[in-house]
Amino acid sequence: MATILLTGANGKVSSEAIRGLQGQGHRLIGLVRDPAKAKGLEALGVELKVGDLEKLRTVEALFEGIDVAWLLTAPGPTAPLQESNALWAARRAGAKHLVRLSAVGAAHDAPTLNSRLHALSDTELMGSGIPFTILKPHFFMQNLLMSARTVAEQGVMHSALGDAKVPMIDVRDVGAVAAKVLAAPAAHAGKTYTLTGAPVTMTQVASAVGEAVGKPVKYMPVPVAGVVESIAKMGGDDYQQVSMRDYFTAYARGWMADPTSTVKDITGRDPRSIAEFARDFAGAFGKK
Ligand SMILES: NC(=O)c1ccc[n+]([C@@H]2O[C@H](COP(=O)([O-])OP(=O)(O)OC[C@H]3O[C@@H](n4cnc5c(N)ncnc54)[C@H](OP(=O)(O)O)[C@@H]3O)[C@@H](O)[C@H]2O)c1
């Protein structure tokens, strides 16, 4: 049984990875910034360590005694700094395997800012000499919950994805793959996996959500500039505005549209469909 450190422990993907690792006898350690926000993790038997990846001194000792670590950073301009800090601490402590959450299409010449920053961290990890695995998930279905209010109040979903087919993935499937890799990392050493669901258009998404909530839901396309404006109005910073502008522009043009079989290859079951996601989150979309 391994001692596994998970960063971003109370975030969406990491908490699903923790769920997938339950009951196997591993010692799980979660990095959090604020333990008050992590009561649910303690209930799952996760030991908490407090630190901030932006502050090297708070994470220098984090990797001592760790066999495998899960590296996840929130999107933002300091993500490469945070990853570099974690990698340095892991290297000094002699971590045996690192599993990193990157993003679909991460590359130095990718058309999206967030993907280029992920590429910096992927490249640093690949050159570290530490055995690694990199997961590159596609657009999270859970992003669609941004439309929960308009679905509930007006029966509409706005998006700048146009008519593009996007192989969105449920975060629960990303977590399930992460758990499998963290539990048996040697089999995945040196591998980079792109994780997707089946491709869907926003018209199909709206139809699945409508079916799940029991009323018609209409997809209303909006220009990318409209999305950026909404993010700005909600207080989104420059990084968030540029990131979303880049992602919607690229996806609407068909960037990274091909699905992969990786979720099934690693977990043994098909990724969740958009219909399954919509049914499971129907309450969040306003189903009475
Ligand atoms: N959304 C998508 O469609 C998509 C697709 C592919 C890849 N991704 C990638 O997925 C990652 C985000 O995953 P997620 O959605 O699970 O994130 P999330 O739910 O926003 O959680 C982020 C976690 O990181 C922690 N965190 C933030 N800043 C930190 C710091 N300075 N030091 C230590 N911990 C810190 C947060 O802790 P607090 O609770 O203390 O804030 C939180 O637990 C990003 O790398 C993104 O690029 C996203």
Write up what this structure looks like.
The chain is of the alpha/beta class and 288 residues long. Helices cover 41% and strands 15% of the residues. It is built from 12 helices and 9 strands. The protein has helices at 12-21, 39-43, 56-59, 79-93, 113-126, 148-154, 171-183, 202-213, 224-233, 238-252, 262-267, 274-280; strands at 3-6, 27-32, 47-50, 68-71, 97-101, 132-137, 156-159, 191-195, 218-221. The chain has a 7-stranded parallel β-sheet with strand order 3-2-1-4-5-6-8, with helices on both faces. Strands 7-9 form a two-stranded parallel ribbon. Strand 5 (97-101), helix 5 and strand 6 (132-137) form a beta-alpha-beta unit. Helix 1 (12-21) crosses helix 7 and helix 4 (79-93) runs parallel beside helix 5. The termini are far apart. The model has no long low-confidence stretch (mean pLDDT 97). Residues 8, 10-13, 31-34, 37, 52-54, 72-75, 82, 101, 103-104, 114, 137, 139-140, 143 line the site of NADP nicotinamide-adenine-dinucleotide phosphate.
DSSP, total strands: 9
The portion of residues assigned to helices is 40-55%
The H-and-E topology, N to C, reads as EHEHEHEHEHEHEHEHEHHHH
Rg, alpha carbons: 19 Å
The major beta sheet can be summarized as: 7 strands, parallel
Ligands present: NADP nicotinamide-adenine-dinucleotide phosphate
The fraction of residues in strands falls at: 5-15%
The outline comes out as globular
**Chain-averaged pLDDT:** 97
Unreliably modeled segments: none
Count the helices. How many?
A: 12
Question: Numbering strands along the chain, what is their spatial order in the largest sheet?
Answer: 3-2-1-4-5-6-8
Structural class: alpha/beta
Distance between termini? 44 Å
